[in-house]
């Protein structure tokens, strides 16, 4: 059952990450989130017991290495995502990439330089004293995650002052997540020191995520930190998600009206300029509808019911006379939706064309 959970979450994260990567290639934004989702998906798949059993047959404790590498890449992705949200994605880009590359190489080299690695899930607690390479492994892993967490905290703290609303709330949650992550990393270093100083170190066993201090630091705090990171990354995109839903509903509402106008005035179609984002596609549709209304003799000041009657009458096209009024985007959307609603109320308004 646990394997199903790990593989399910991992594959879902992978699919979402690949979709975000494809979208990032079109829009030029969101690469950090794509990296994070893909890396987390890979980490979850590698952590499943079934996957680790196969990985250990290939090489002892290979699953531990692969999941740690994926976790580091995910941390880098979160750094990039927070920098994009804070508007400072171009800063320290090379230093982040260099730190990740060095840490990945050191982890791989120190792992394969260690002999006598255990099979299974890769618990190293009893091997640190006899294998200095494993000390290097865990120290570099912890050091890089600490570097990433501090970088995330600095970017979040710097951007929170200029942020407002959901952005500020999300960055504030990220700061709290960083505090839990740093506590986890401090506990990891303390555990390493304890294993090195003990003559007979014993692998930690937890009955629950918060059953004792060690389990709280090693299991509970990372879980809380990951949850807070997910919340912190989600909050800033909620307004944009709401806007995308409203834009999609507006495009759907305008579809029958656009179909009618394009049928009467084919030249209003913007060939090859539908746009990449939902907002760009909506602006294209609105422009086409507005041009069609002008050609149909519908003035901007005409009430929606009167405009719908003029469209249904099929009168010869006359140039509309623009009138002074509220020209904001919201007001224009409301005006066009009202006309489209009045137009759809007539049974003979016509069928809808495919969405743009």
UniProtKB/TrEMBL annotation:
Tree of life domain: Bacteria
Keywords: Membrane, Transmembrane, Transmembrane helix
Transmembrane regions listed in the UniProt entry: 30-48, 98-122, 134-154, 166-186, 219-241
Protein name: Uncharacterized protein
